[in-house]
Amino acid sequence: MRTEVRTSMSRIKRQQSRMRRAVYVLILWNQKARNMRVGALGRLDFPAGFYLYVGSGGLNAVRRVQRHLARKKRVRWHIDYLTTGRNRMRPVDAYFFPGMRECCLVRTLAAARCECGRKPMRIYEPAAGDLHRQHFPGFGSSDCRCRSHLFYAANLTSLAKALRLLH
After folding, report:
1. SS3 sequence of 46-106
2. Nearest-CA neighbor of 120 among 106, 104, 109?
3. Which whole-number Å values give the CA distances from 18 to 60, 61, 99, 100, 166, in the listed order?
4. Tens-place pLDDT, residues 8-58
5. Which of 31, 43, 105, 135 has its CA 20 to 30 A from that of 148?
6. What is d(CA 138, CA 127) in angstroms, rounded to the nearest whole number?
7. Which pTM value belongs to this model?
């Protein structure tokens, strides 16, 4: 059975007009297990499944996501190693969170208490049970104290649980 996943660029562009400063969650689909080099992090194993990457783009969050969606680009950030080239993971969708802090969103997904003192969205609900980030220490978080900004969901059920935490 072949599953085709498409990015909703029209929805992303509609959100652009409402953006101020925003963080985003980029959802990627990895069709098969891969071992990839990710800059200074070295070679990492990426099992088949869905990945949620939390990033920030300041006033240009939509442009940042559009850049992640491009197949060809200069590799600048950890996420670029996953979204560039012929063997890239497929972008599925992106969600924007104006006014939210990047690390608070990471801690919301990890069901951890936020260090900034603000109460993140639904932080006290249980974590999405099958959402994992232990495989990717330091991914996307070289400029903060978070363990990782990349999460793994083995299947659509786990992904849906994680997305419900964010809405």
Report:
1. ECCEEEEEEEEEECCHHHHHHHHHCCCCCCCCHHHHHHCCCCCCEEEEEEEEECCCHHHHH
2. 104
3. 12, 11, 11, 14, 18
4. 556 555 555 555 678 999 999 999 999 999 999 999 999 999 999 999 888
5. 31
6. 20
7. 0.79
